[in-house]
Amino acid sequence: MMYSSRRKPVLYFKEDRRYLSGKCTVYKLFGLCMVLVLVSLLWLQLSCSGDMSATHGERCMPQQPAPPCPASGQASVVDDPSWGPHKLAIVVPFRERFEELLVFVPFIHAFLNKNKIRHKILIINQVDHYRFNRASLINVGYTESGNDTDYLAMHDVDLLPLNDALDYGFPEKGPFHVASPELHPLYHYKTYVGGILLLTKKHYHMCNGMSNRFWGWGREDDEFYRRLRKAELQLFRPSGITTGYKTFLHVHNPAWRKRDQKRVAAQKQEQFKVDPEGGLTNLRYEVESRQELTISGAPCTVINTKLECDQNQTPWCLLG
Questions:
Q1: Angstrom distance (rounded) from CA 254 to CA 186
Q2: How many other CB atoms are there within 10 angstroms of residue 128's CB atom?
Q3: DSSP annotation of 69
Q4: What was the pLDDT predicted at 50?
Q5: 122-131, 135-144, 155-164, 310-319: segment of lowest average pLDDT
Q6: Distance between CA 87 and CA 91 in Å, rounded?
Q7: pLDDT tens digits for range 59-99
Q8: Cα dihedral sign for 75, 79, 80, 85?
Q9: What is the C-alpha separation between 40 and 82, in angstroms, rounded?
Q10: In the chain, what percentage of residues exceed pLDDT 90?
Q11: Structural domain boundaries, residue 277
């Protein structure tokens, strides 16, 4: 009897049953074992291929928003005049957070290019032996931003915008708090203005910049909020954003990147006071060097900065 080739596997096992009913020989048993082994291997191969395809499909579904990789076409775009007359200076106060910087620069560059925002990225790197002073570094960024920019973003290096609807455009009507309390993953009090804040250079100058008295982590944003009110500037925040606390990716790891939250001597009382005179007018610093870098195709300028401290005024700029 003749059988079609596609039915051979089924009929072959029918013959095997007859094959075993007779006298068993070594050759017959060996042949049967070889058939079973080959069939098992074929079944295993088909099963594994299916599992691998399913696993691959699962891996392609992101568990959480991931920083986009800038396309090669985007990487070269930094200042396209057709995007408008305004240009943004991204001012990043920085010290020893290189892992976060490697993520931030290409991420924000791609984000701004996608939204057609002319920009340049300034990393203000504190290289002196004093405690970290975020506010003074932002003052340095404003001063060193050049005449080719007309507004700035006070931008934390560990905060990445995930919603393309977030507006980094020129804040003509007043300061625009991108990382508003309704959207920031950690800070939700009404007077919070940290994380990401956009201001025109004119408005920043009206506030005399930020106070230079805040050495260590925290409180400088709260004092700056009072400066905005004193200058009678209207603060704006995003509207129509529906992503809530998932609007930003906060990449800071407190387990291995601990903040300097120590309060030394009179600093405990001074941190809650308004600094009526300090700011751009009493900023003292030295630019040690400038470095033009490209990180994953995204350009940035690192300004290595040595701040100066009047220890008679703020002895808490040093610890110990």
A1: 13
A2: 17
A3: P
A4: 45
A5: 310-319
A6: 13
A7: 333 344 455 454 444 455 667 889 999 999 999 999 988 99
A8: positive
A9: 65
A10: 59
A11: 88-253+266-317
Contact in structure between 59 and 91 (CB atoms under 8 Å): no
How do beta strands 88-94 and 151-155 pair? parallel
Is residue 238, in this structure, part of any structural domain at all?
Answer: yes
The token pair at 117 is: 């925002």
How many domains is the chain partitioned into structurally?
Answer: 1
- Burial code of 56-79, b = ≥16 C-beta within 10 A, e = fewer? eeeeeeeeeeebeebeeebbebbe
Q: Which two tokens stand for residue 240?
A: 């129509």
Q: Based on the number of CB atoms within 10 Å of its own CB, is 106 exposed (0-12), middle (13-18) or buried (19 or more)?
A: buried
User: Across residues 7-34, what is the average pLDDT?
Assistant: 50
Handedness of CA 90, 148, 166, 139 (dihedral sign): positive
Give the tens place of pLDDT for each residue, 197-240. Answer: 999 999 999 999 999 999 887 689 999 999 999 999 999 999 99
**209-247 burial, b if ≥16 CB within 10 A, otherwise e?**
bbbbbbbbeebbbbbbbebbeeeebebbebeebeeeeeb
Residue 126 contacts residue 305 (beta carbons within 8 Å): yes
Whether residue 106 lies inside any domain: the answer is: yes
Residue 6 in any domain: the answer is no
- For residue 223, the domain's CATH number is 3.90.550.10
pLDDT reading at 282 higher than 60: yes
Q: Is the pTM of this model over 0.85?
A: no
Q: Would residue 219 count as lying in a domain?
A: yes
Asked if pLDDT for residue 27 goes beyond 60, the answer is: yes
